[in-house]
């Protein structure tokens, strides 16, 4: 495997007053990766990004960039550049001057600046707006200026702090594709910080899910979604139904769990007999039926529809099990006659294959 | 019947209320009529007496050729320019310091900084006079050649002008996005480049507005100047005071009109640079 371009080693960041924003984090980020730091607000993801950029320094630990320990190197001496959440486009400069700024202050020759600024604006499709002032531009355009301004420096690593959060939904989709395209085009490592799981899942090659200053799971998007290792990750990435259960018997990796309101089911896990576990099932893995299904070996429960949320191409049906626990089921609206035909109070049967469930402990 | 709104007006449109309109008219009358009379009489033919005798431009060259008025004007402008330069630099530095740093006793320091604004001018004048005399500063400077003999006045003016600059620049800085500084550092600029190329351009409207404010404050200051001037030095406001004691000559009106125009131009510029459209950048 290639050398990591960014290697974070046992990094902690503590603030005076006892708050620990980042707690002993180690992570390797590879060349040309599109890496996402994902987590709820306050999980330390932005602090970690800022420490990689040099805008903050760790209380402990090392940060290697390109093999060199740069934990205490000032930001202007690092081969990283950042796209800020507020874009931070200089308001008193034109677009071209904004992009040229990072080259001017480091003494790049004027003709080279001109050429590289032209290229960078081309890359983000802003050549026609080179002489505009930022206050005459939309949020999406300002974001492109911020991108061009960072890319023109040819950093080894591009850092993006919540780059899409200030854009409206349509623009966000466009920009997501745009970022993926740019990353492939320029071939450098992107590290993106986001609280939006859709953003991380759709763009990143690997995702580190953070909680309370620590990385809870580091995996590819599909692994995170289908094989979460903890209740937190399962719950944070996408929607999930969680059921409390006990392991009642174990034979190798085959276990039988007794879940509240669902009864016994055969699952695969390495948990020992007697362990308290959580069984997680994604809403799209569940099936709805009006009558009791006859198939054997499925997990089944009766339920009463509480709410139907219509999302166009799919609907979310929330139904209460007899013990009162709500279960979410996603139903594809693949017929023109519209929705599921279900309404509040309808009795339904919910089934799923035991192999679609996950056994989690935390 | 319950009170009704007029068609096509909102509940907060006060402009059509009679009593407010009359109050406004009275205010304008008291504030600006005297100034208009002063300007009008600067074009009066007869030199004294307060009776309109006919239009003339004579008073302007007369004021210009009056050596003592001219000298006083040159003194005032010199003091104002030097004061503006120094007070703007100090005031801007104070503003940046109060905006950026946290330090012990900061609220007390901020209050002390604003003291020259709230303290009665007469107190400050007397205090400075006593200080200059007791320390020998007055004696030292008043025997030097022009413009060094204006030093005591300039020091006093800087002392009461820089807080105004600091307040104006500080209020401008409130809207500054600190990520701009971070972006500058991230893009390869050092601290000094970041200060001169990002922070200063952002503060510029505030700095210019503060400088113009300092200029007008210094130019027309009477009380503090009166106390801190040496025996030989006369500024324009002090000169006018001594002239009107012996009856108003219309060349004083002419010179005053020039001063008013300088002040108005400076004020309008200051307001323009502080206007919301500019500040929004």
How would you briefly describe this protein structure?
The complex is a heterodimer of chains A (362) and B (281). Helix content of chain A is 23%, strand content 36%.
Describe this structure in words.
The complex is a heterodimer of chains A (about 350) and B (about 280). Chain A is α+β, with helices and mostly antiparallel strands and about 350 residues long. Chain A has 2 domains: about 5-235, 3-Layer(aba) Sandwich (Rossmann fold); about 240-360, Beta Barrel (OB fold (Dihydrolipoamide Acetyltransferase, E2P)). Chain A is built from 8 helices and 20 strands. In chain A, the strands form 4 sheets. Chain A has a 6-stranded mixed β-sheet, sandwiched between helices. In chain A, helix 2 crosses helix 3, helix 2 runs parallel beside helix 4 and helix 3 (about 110-125) crosses helix 4. The mean pLDDT of chain A is about 90. By secondary structure, chain B is an all-alpha fold. Chain B has a single domain (about 60-280), classed as MetI-like (MetI-like fold), CATH 1.10.3720.10. In chain B, helix 2 (about 60-65) packs across helix 13 (about 250-275). The N and C termini of chain B lie far apart (about 50 Å).
- Number of domains in the coordinates of chain A? 2
Q: What's the overall average pLDDT of chain B, rounded?
A: 87
How far is the first residue's CA from the last residue's CA of chain B?
Answer: 50 Å
Poorly predicted ranges of chain B (pLDDT <50, ≥5 residues)? none
List the helices and strands and how they pair.
The complex is a heterodimer of chains A (362) and B (281).
Chain A: E1 4-15, E2 19-30, E3 34-38, H1 45-53, E4 60-65, E5 68-69, E6 80-83, H2 95-104, H3 110-123, H4 139-151, E7 157-161, H5 169-186, E8 189-194, H6 197-203, E9 206-211, E10 214-219, H7 221-226, H8 231-236, E11 241-251, E12 254-259, E13 263-268, E14 276-281, E15 287-289, E16 299-310, E17 314-320, E18 326-332, E19 347-352, E20 358-360
Parallel strand pairs in A: 3-8, 3-9, 6-7, 7-8
Antiparallel strand pairs in A: 1-2, 1-4, 4-5, 9-10, 11-12, 11-14, 12-13, 14-20, 15-19, 16-17, 16-19, 17-18
Helix pairs in contact in A: 2-3, 2-4, 3-4
Chain B: H1 18-41, H2 59-65, H3 67-100, H4 106-113, H5 115-118, H6 121-135, H7 137-142, H8 151-173, H9 178-186, H10 191-219, H11 223-228, H12 236-244, H13 250-274, H14 276-279
Helix pairs in contact in B: 2-13, 3-8, 3-10, 3-12, 8-10, 9-10, 10-13
């Amino acid at each position: 495997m290639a050398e990591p371009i960014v290697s974070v080693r046992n990094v902690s960041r503590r603030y005076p007053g006892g708050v620990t924003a980042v707690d002993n984090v180690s992570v390797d980020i590879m060349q040309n990766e599109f890496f996402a730091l994902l987590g709820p607000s306050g999980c330390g993801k932005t602090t970690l990004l800022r420490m990689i950029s040099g805008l903050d320094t760790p209380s402990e630990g090392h940060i290697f960039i390109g093999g060199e320990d740069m934990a205490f190197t000032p930001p202007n001496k690092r081969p990283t550049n950042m796209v800020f959440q507020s874009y931070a486009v200089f308001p008193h400069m034109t677009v071209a001057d904004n992009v040229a700024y990072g080259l001017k202050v480091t003494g790049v020759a004027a003709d080279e600046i001109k050429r590289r600024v032209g290229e960078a604006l081309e890359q983000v499709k802003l050549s026609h707006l080179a002489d505009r002032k930022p206050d005459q531009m939309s949020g999406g355009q300002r974001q492109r200026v911020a991108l061009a301004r960072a890319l023109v420096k040819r950093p080894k690593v591009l850092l993006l702090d919540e780059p899409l959060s200030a854009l409206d939904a349509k623009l966000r989709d466009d920009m997501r594709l745009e970022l993926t395209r740019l990353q492939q085009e320029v071939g450098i490592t992107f590290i993106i910080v986001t609280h939006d799981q859709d953003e991380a899942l759709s763009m990143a090659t690997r995702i580190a899910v953070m909680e309370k200053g620590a990385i809870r799971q580091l995996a590819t998007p599909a692994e995170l979604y289908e094989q979460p290792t903890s209740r937190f990750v399962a719950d944070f990435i996408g929607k999930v139904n969680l059921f409390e259960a006990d392991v009642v018997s174990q034979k190798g990796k085959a276990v039988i769990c007794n879940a509240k309101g669902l009864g016994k089911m055969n699952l695969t896990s390495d948990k020992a007999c007697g362990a308290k576990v959580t069984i997680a099932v994604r809403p799209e893995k569940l099936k709805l039926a009006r009558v009791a299904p006859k198939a054997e070996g499925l997990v089944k429960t009766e339920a009463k529809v509480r709410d139907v949320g219509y999302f166009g191409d799919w609907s979310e049906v929330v139904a209460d099990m007899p013990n009162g626990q709500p279960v979410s089921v996603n139903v594809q609206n693949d017929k023109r006659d519209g929705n599921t035909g279900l309404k509040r109070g309808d009795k339904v049967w919910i089934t799923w294959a035991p192999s679609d469930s996950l056994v989690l402990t935390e | 019947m319950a009170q009704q709104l007029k068609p096509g007006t909102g509940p907060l449109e006060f402009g059509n209320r009679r009593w407010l309109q009359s109050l406004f008219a009275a205010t304008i009358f008291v504030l600006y009529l005297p100034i208009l009379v002063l300007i009008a009489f600067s074009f009066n033919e007869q030199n004294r007496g307060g009776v309109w005798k006919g239009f003339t431009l004579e008073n302007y060259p007369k004021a210009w050729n009056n050596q003592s008025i001219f000298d006083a004007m040159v003194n005032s402008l010199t003091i104002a320019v030097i004061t503006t330069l120094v007070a703007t630099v100090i005031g801007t530095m104070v503003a940046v310091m109060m905006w950026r740093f946290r330090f012990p006793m900061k609220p007390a320091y901020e209050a002390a900084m604003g003291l020259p604004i709230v303290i009665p001018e007469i107190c400050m004048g007397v205090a400075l006079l006593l200080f200059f005399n007791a320390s020998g500063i007055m004696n030292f400077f008043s025997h030097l050649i022009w413009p060094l003999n204006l030093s005591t006045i300039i020091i006093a003016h800087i002392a009461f002008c820089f807080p105004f600059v600091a307040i104006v620049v500080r209020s401008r800085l409130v809207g500054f996005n600190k990520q701009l500084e971070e972006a500058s550092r991230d893009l390869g600029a050092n601290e000094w480049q970041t200060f001169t190329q990002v922070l200063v351009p952002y503060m510029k409207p505030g700095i210019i507005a503060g400088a113009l404010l300092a200029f007008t404050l210094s130019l027309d200051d009477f009380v503090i100047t009166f106390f801190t001037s040496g025996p030989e030095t006369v500024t324009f406001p002090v000169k006018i005071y001594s002239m009107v004691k012996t009856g108003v000559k219309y060349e004083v009106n002419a010179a005053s009109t020039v001063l008013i125009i300088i002040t108005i131009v400076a004020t309008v510029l200051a307001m323009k640079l502080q206007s919301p459209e500019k500040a929004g950048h």
